[in-house]
Amino acid sequence: MPFGGRGGLGFALCTLFLLSSCTRGNAVAHQNTGSLVEMAGLYGQGSHPTAVEPAKAVVGGQASPASDDRETEGQYGNQIAAYLIEKNYDALDQAAREARTKKARFKGGVWKLYIFYDALGKPTLGTEATDEDWTYHIGRVKDWEAARPESVSARIALAQTYLIYASQARGGGYANTVSDTGWKLYHERVELAASSLTQAAKLKEKCPYWYEAMQNVALAQGWDKSQARKLLDGATAFEPIFYHYYREYANYLLPKWYGQPGESEAFAEEISNKIDGKEGKFVYFEIASLVTCQCDSDASNIENFSWPKIKEGYAALGELYGYSNLKLNRFAHMAFEANDKQAAQQAFAMIGNDWDHVVWRSSRKFEDARNWAAGQ
User: How far is CA 131 from CA 122, 134, 154, 161, 328, in A?
Assistant: First the structure.
């Protein structure tokens, strides 16, 4: 079965532990946390990705490449997954290197590098994968690692796989629904991910996604706030416009994890002001869409954000990268929650009948919101 495009990304965002319907639950303090934090502080020093693309939009004083409409996330993910199955390691390493250096994005602003690792982090069957499928997939990634011992991408892909495999053991329910065996496998697999990232850090070539994967380790292991913030600061010093870092940290600050009410919202304000320009507005929108469009609850925190700023961020998204169907659905959902009929009408007109199940969870909720926007 192919990678699955939007379904693959939805799996990564809502089914996995990093954004799942759970409370912090069974976080375990690790003796090596301090060394991981120190490693993260040193990881990117003296080495930064170089942008080589010819056409870029300048936002907030920084170069930000526009999106490439020639290829969809699903098409790209399918090709990357196929390279792994075919054992085409040259193509895998070249694709990763191009995604890092060109900083290319898909429509909607998602980094190609993000989709690269999303495609490699799980079997092609996704949520339907059996333990045998996982064993096969892990073996494929390990084959790549063995064949290319200097490939940072192979080691990070293995870490990503262990992180998603950990979430598979844990499941998507609340912490008190997880069995002792589930917790044991969860922590064992997170440790394997951390070990793979430790090995990746020793290699000459560096990759922005290393920090993204380490943020997921930090969430799973329950790092304290000062450690998680130090990790974020190291990540953004290395690649400041990789907006996925900011979403991960905002997720960490949610009350269901390690934050207090209002902390994610305050972080959105802080970081959007720091980045400034259209990119800063875009990041505000991204964090708001994470906090208000949670997959596991009907509750919305839209009132804790500035609705005018969300709309500015949505406009900046369109100008910088264009609108993907996912981002249109997210904005329509927020406009509905904010009781802004005009904004909702415009978004629903662009969506048509292509509603997103990750955002709305049911066709009835989508239809009710669309009818409200139309005044019915």
Answer: 11, 5, 21, 13, 36
Q: Is the pLDDT of residue 136 over 70?
A: yes
Q: CB of 343 within 8 A of CB of 328?
A: no
Q: Tell me which long-range contacts 269-274 makes (C-beta under 8 A, separation of at least 24).
A: 269/306, 271/246, 272/309, 272/313
DSSP code per residue over 189-225: HHHHHHHHHHHHHTSSS--THHHHHHHHHHHHHT--H
Kindly tell me if the per-residue pLDDT of 1 is higher than 50: no
Residue 31 has pLDDT above 60, yes or no: no
CA distances, 194 to each of 37, 160, 219, 299, 376 (Å):
11, 10, 12, 33, 52
- Give which of 179, 154, 155, 185 is closest to 167, Cα–Cα: 185
Q: Count of alpha carbons within 13 Å of 264, Cβ hemisphere only?
A: 30
d(CA 191, CA 157): 15
Residues 231 and 218: beta-carbon distance below 8 Å: yes
For the chain, the residue count is 376
Burial class (CB in 10 A: 0-12, 13-18, 19+), 160: buried
Question: Cα separation of 180 and 186, whole Å?
Answer: 10
Q: Going by C-beta distance under 8 Å and a sequence separation of 6 or more, which residues neighbour residue 202? A: none
Q: What is the pLDDT of residues 234-250, one digit of tens each?
A: 999 999 999 999 999 99
Mean pLDDT (whole number) for 337-355: 96
Buried b (16+ CB within 10 A) or exposed e, 180-189: eebbebbbeb
Q: Are 360 and 314 in contact (CB under 8 A)?
A: no
Burial of 204 (0-12, 13-18, 19+ CB in 10 A): exposed
Query: Of 237, 304, 300, whose CA–CA distance to 268 is shortest?
Result: 304
Would you say 103 and 57 are in contact if contact means Cβ atoms under 8 Å apart?
Answer: no
**Which H or E run includes 227?**
helix 225-238
> Would you state the structure tokens that stand for residue 2, as one six-digit string?
């192919």
Predicted TM-score (pTM) of the model is: 0.86
